Amino acid sequence: MGRVEVYRHGGSPWSTRGVPKEVLIDAARRCEALVIFIGDVIDKEVLDAGEKLKIVSTASVGVDHIDVEYAKRKGVVVAHTPYVLVDAVADLAVGLLIAVARKIALGDRLIRAGAADAVWGSLMGVNLRGKRAGIVAWQHRRGYCPQA
């Protein structure tokens, strides 16, 4: 049975600050698998420290913070979560469309400043009813793996 270690660096796992390099090197020396986040940089130095390392998995869409080619040469599998943000991106796109059409940010600023009375009618924005919107997106093909 394996053992799991968690490094808590005091910040959000979604922070781009990442775990300090010396912590990653130490973990790579001791572990067979690393689960990392977007701010954690897995470069040649970290990979060279991981003689037992078999897999590095990132809880992110991209792998640009991992030296994938070098990992591949060392026989370390690199995994990622290509669909983790699909719903969030779609939700945000729709939310931003509504926010722009209805001038939500401008209205919020003016209301908080007590300056909305004179321009209240213009803050209603445009009605989306009857409008067409297109969201163009690119999607990874199913089964995509950066080492395939």
Textual characterization of the structure:
The chain is mainly alpha-helical. The protein is elongated, with a radius of gyration of 22 Å. Helix 3 (about 70-75) links the parallel strand 2 (about 55-60) and strand 3. The protein has a 3-stranded parallel beta sheet with strand order 1-2-3. The chain has helices spanning about 20-30, 45-50, 70-75, 85-100, 105-110, and strands at about 35, 55-60, 75-80. Helices cover about 30% and strands about 5% of the residues. It is built from 5 helices and 3 strands. Residues about 140-148 have low confidence and may be disordered. The longest helix is centred in the middle third of the chain and has 16 residues, at about 85-100.
Mean pLDDT: 86
> What structural class results from the helix and strand content?
mainly alpha
What letter string, H or E per element, gives the SSE order?
HEHEHEHH
Please report which band the strand proportion falls in: under 5%, 5-15%, 15-25%, 25-35%, 35-45% or over 45%.
Answer: 5-15%
**Percentage of residues in helical conformation:** 25-40%
**For this entry, what is the oligomeric state of its chains?**
single chain
Amino- and carboxy-terminal Cα gap: 29 Å
Strand adjacency order, main sheet: 1-2-3
The count of DSSP E runs of length 2 or more, i.e. the number of strands, is: 3
Radius of gyration: 22 Å
Catalogue the unreliable spans.
Answer: 142-148
Task: Characterize the biggest β-sheet.
Answer: 3 strands, parallel
Name the overall outline.
elongated
Q: Count every helix, treating DSSP H or I runs of 4 or more residues as helices.
A: 5
